Automatic annotation (TrEMBL):
It comes from Pseudolysinimonas kribbensis. InterPro entries: bc1_cytC-su, Cyt_c-like_dom, Cyt_c-like_dom_sf, Cytochrome_c_Oxidase_Subunit. Its EC number is 7.1.1.8. SUPFAM superfamilies: Cytochrome c (SSF46626). Residues 63-143, 157-235 form the Cytochrome c domain. This is Cytochrome bc1 complex cytochrome c subunit. Keywords: Cell membrane, Electron transport, Heme, Iron, Membrane, Metal-binding, Repeat, Respiratory chain, Translocase, Transmembrane, Transmembrane helix, Transport. It catalyses: a quinol + 2 Fe(III)-[cytochrome c](out) = a quinone + 2 Fe(II)-[cytochrome c](out) + 2 H(+)(out). The cytochrome bc1 complex is composed of a cytochrome b (QcrB), the Rieske iron-sulfur protein (QcrA) and a diheme cytochrome c (QcrC) subunit. Residues 8-18 have a biased composition (Polar residues).
Amino acid sequence: MARRSDSSRTMATSVPTSSRRKTGRRSPLASVALLLIGLLATGGAYAAFTTSASASTPASEQAQVSEGKKLFEANCATCHGLGAVGTAGVAPSLVGVGPAAVDFQVGTGRMPMAASGPQAEQKPTQFTNTQIAALAAYVGSLAPGPAIPSADSLKGGNVSTGAELFRVNCAMCHNVAGAGGALTEGKYAPPLTGVTAKHVYEAMVTGPQNMPVFNNLNITPKDKAAIVAYLQYLDSHPSPGGLDLGNLGPVSEGLFVWIFALGAIVVVTIWLTAKPN
């Protein structure tokens, strides 16, 4: 009887052990550990990718600035000095003018100047677009300044609003139709026909030559886009009144009528009265 009870006691203790082995469960800590491992692996891969991508961007920008510095020292430093700090009585400092000023002056051929004069005249450019961008990047790296406008900032302007703003802020020098006009001491406001939208915008934010600077407090970016739209409208729509006489305004048109039309009438009158004699 004692042996039977011992065997039964052995069976009683062995059965729960085998059942636990068959129905064993994974610890909750294992799931948490796997989740943490997955998150760390994903985060590490993303961090490595973004770090490599961000590291390549400054490297390319630095290469562009370095190229622009070489171009500047070879073509511009004679007048503007090393480091673009300017030279007394020859050329101003370019520190702080921003990339937009360089893109306008070099992109329109005004710089480098062919000869010293009261005003830099527009002429064919001497640099490629890549070289102009490099020069702008170099000057922009010297100090903060107006940036080159994006393509989106030049679109969507209201033509009628732009016409009103142009008459108030620009027509006294450039003429209401953008035909340009004379200023003092041999200077002039250039005609705005055929000027690209980017260069018009850059001229407003940088104030080249004798032009004042129109910052965002004077004329908002939206209003600048409206002025650009108005000038583009003038380029694409010829004068509806026929011969525009250079768009120089009513004074030139009245003078034309007075000299040529009335002169022709006087000549015909003299001829008719003199013919019978």
